[in-house]
Amino acid sequence: MKRFSTNIITLLTLCIPIGILFAQQTPATSKYDYHDAFAPNFYTKNGTDTRSASGQPGPKYWQNRADYQLTAQLNETTNEIVGSEVLTYTNNSPDALSFLWMNVDQNAFKKDSRGNAVISLSGSRGGAKGEQLDGGFKIKSITLLSAVNGKTVEKEVPFTVSDTRMQIQLPQELKGNGTSIKVKIAFSYISPKYGSDRTGIVDTKNGKIFTIAQWYPRMCVYDDVRGWNTNPYIGAEFYLEYGDFDVAITAPSNHIVVCSGELQNPAEVYTAEQQKRWAQAKQSDQTVMIRSVSEVTNSASRPSGKPTLTWRFKIKNARDVSWASSAAFIVDAARINLPSGKKSLAISTYPVESDGAQAWGRATEYTKTSIENYSKRWFEFPYPAATNVAGNEGGMEYPGIVFCEFTSKGGDLWGVTDHEFGHSWFPMIVGSNERLFAWMDEGFNTFINSLSSEDFNKGEYKAPAQNMNQNATFLTDPNLETMFSSPDNMKEESIGLLAYYKPGTGLTMLREQILGKERFDYAFRTYIARWAFKHPTPDDFFRTMENAGGEDLNWFWRGWFANNWRLDQGITKVKYLKNDAAKGAIITIENLEKMAMPVVVEIKTKSGKTSRVQLPVEIWMRNTTWSFKAGTNEEIDTITLDPDHAFPDYNVANNTWVAGKSELEADVILDPYLGTFSSKMIPIKLTFTEEDGNLIGVATGQSPILFEPMGKDRFQHAAYGIQIQFNEAKTEVTLIQGREILFTREK
User: Fold this and answer.
1) Strand, coil or helix: what is 178?
2) pLDDT at position 15 over 80
3) β 395-398/401-405 pair status
């Protein structure tokens, strides 16, 4: 590396104190510190055997597995679900486990739950909206299953329930590196009508719609980051292991049941005519009606002869399973075409209250288009069906199935459908820890939703361009928590901003303004492919985007994600070279707040010509102010920073310079100052020349430095605290730095 020259400073060290020599002057009005913004060591740890420094899973990455055989019996009168579970848990970690932790999230609806306790008087999305019910799981038994002489033997094991967590104490350690254990659990619970906007029951004129989720004890994740992840369920979403599911749901025979995965026994639960329609739907890009409005109240639309029917479903490599059941369902479906040539099926179920071409009559079209779009852009949808259920949830996602508000119509229904199925990628495919890092699923999903809405039906529901200048006022409000706060650690009204909108717009900025679409899309696809069906952390995302995108983005993660910094870039000075517009203009901008961002400047001249100057973020790596020459040859009419309002500059008052209204600085004519000066005090000469409108000083045998005007006949080099003062006749110049040294012009 080339050593930086200290220029004339080296020659003066004998007579000027070192402390004064390197004193730096920073404008008092700016809060910007480039040492903070561009500091190294953003990452607090190096790569490991399980997580590479490049952002990909390491050579020894491991992940435990949970496979489930589940049964459920629905009592539509009492709203009770009675279930059984056979869990096969595989410990792929290197650790021996003496106990297992499970999520029992229905316990959030017990009267004395933590989830109820943290609901404020102003209300919450959480809880059961005041419904009084005997909520929570009733765990009837837990046994370990083993084979003895070819027979299955059950042995009861002790367990402890603590709010929404359940610990199973094993009689002997479950060894690591691929050892499995089978656990059988019998349970039941009463479903709340409103279950934290994630599960519930809605009454329609043709019967109840049950949307059932968090309905069985689910394994907590044991990972290489925290060990057991046992944060209680008090509002934030979920973190779950992957596995295969085999599900049997018994419901009244007049019900239609839909579930994550693929129906295994259609001949037992659908009429012969409906089975023909299913076959048609699997071959159709247009929506095919399976059970119409008129058939909902027609008993012939359901198999007869039995009071109940059992529906069987399977789904592979999923992190959860949910289902819905109702006698009120209209059902329609259409084929989903995937990039590999594989097919999936878009299905919608909804009551007559939701029917109509402006409402749920288009739900399958929305589902099909959404899944096809994301599969093409990012990663192929892995499941055999994508089912959209009309319920009383505003919108909630599960693998292969989502619950959306039954009253939604038009653009609102498109938006909630596209958002909930976007979650198929985050967190259903990319299995991040939602309970800690909501922005890694909600924010990423909000971002991909913005592109999907542009694509759908030639922009039918495309949102208008965001004005980030206006939005910055609330997105970077100093009173907000940071995005790195867990959702349970945020005020509930902040979650929409910090988990959804702010990270989503951050990725848009990264794609549109910083990396560019091509580099961003490649890096983002790489992240998804690397961590599909795995458990990434924020660092894994950041490192992947940097490594695959080829850009050090520490400054961006630090300013937008890790901190709640603000951006304020402003125009501070404008002048014409030698006061002649034909010679071009010098524009000076300043960074006034903590955040750094690239700069886009639009210049419009008096004749109406418009040009743009794009400056990279690197101008702020060692500067608080920056001056550049505009390539104009006539008078300027306006200068505008961030003309597209693409950056979160919260103070737009200093973003525009207008001729005749804003100050035009007079340029200092440098000709009188040029020449060579010598001193009787030290044996060096100073030579002053002009370069690009700047006064350049060179000491004998040294490299040049730039002096900026700071008053009548006075100039400075602020970084080194040097000032020079010419006399009125320009025959003498005094060098000032701690002491004064007089130089005289040579003839």
Assistant:
1) coil
2) no
3) antiparallel
